[in-house]
Specification:
410 residues; alpha/beta; Nucleotidyltransferase, domain 5; six-stranded mixed β-sheet; elongated; DDE_SF_endonuclease_dom; DNA binding; RNaseH_sf
Amino acid sequence: MAAKNQHNPKWTIEQLNAAIEDVNNGAPKRKNAEKYAIPWGTFSDKLSGRRKMEEQSKTVFSKEEVCEILNFLKMTSARGFGKTKDELLVVVKNYLDQKGRETQWENNKPSTKWFRLFRKRHPEIVFRKPQLLGKQRALITKRDILDWFDQMTNVVKEIDPTIFLEPERIYNCDESGFSLNALSGRVLSYLDNNFVYQVGSEAKTLITALVCCSAKGHYTWPILIYPGTQFRGFKPQEVFEQSFIGRSENGWITQNLFYEWLKQVFVPQTAHVKKPLLLLVDGHISHQSVQASKLCDENNIVLYCLPPHSSHILQPLDVGVFKTMKSEWKKAVKRQNETEIVTKRTFAKTFKDAYETTIARPLADKAFRACGLYPLDPTNVDWSKVVSGVAQVILMLSSHHSLHLPMGLD
């Protein structure tokens, strides 16, 4: 016998009200229930008051919200953002949090049952369980990179092929951590002196900076993300006005912070740029939220994901900007420590010096070129950073001690 569908009855509340009205006017109860196609048990419970006339909907999301989530999954999947089950649940949790919604789920994170029913209702969405990749399997190949270029080019050209002709329409943003106790490198000492010191902060605090630039060298305001829930007696933006300040429990980027940076910084500061424009990011979960995807779509921003394990090869900021910025950061820390130790209070002032010195140099255009992103040319990629097929075989075989290297590879 098929199970009754209690959540999606075939009768409507209007039919139920009409049936009850007829009964009140003298109509037979059972025949009236049959007339309106309402199960007798349900109708009897409604009449007696054992069940409320209008029960609260058991669905958490409206049809419009479900459409938003589905559109997000389809769009991000096409642009390289794969989703595991856990990642989707986190995305939906943050979606509810940003809307200020409270649900029966613990911490607003959907249950496994919701996930199972969601899959059942939408078979067109295919989910895969996350697989842990060992270091050897995580190495990216030349074929992976070329396939990504082909896919990315096809997707963007379908939207607007002229994007690749204009460097001011191609952006990259990425995060990097800056330690308060950055050392400036080795120092000189006498041969018989085994202990040398540098003045600096003993704190191991790491503050994250999200930096964003175009292939033409236009930088938007960075976001500085401090660990903790509040600032005690200092306001970082007062000393670095052209920055966006955020906080998170551990000082790392979150979905909400990335969304707020997009909304308050990136969108207004690229308003002058011809649309659509391309924004390349890595696949970190913080870049993957329904709100961020919707905001980008509304503002003609193509948010596209770089392939996994490729930041040192395809991410312009990693390839050609952050190294210089970290070097300038160490110099700025050394200068600051001569008068006052770098702490969270003085971080923004010190970082501002390193940041402004870095972005004043012509680094961005060279970085995008080295990544093959502008001009669009994969042959510009430094293939020496890509592990060869033979090397991958060696690494994979060497991880299994019981196996011997094949002839010619030892």
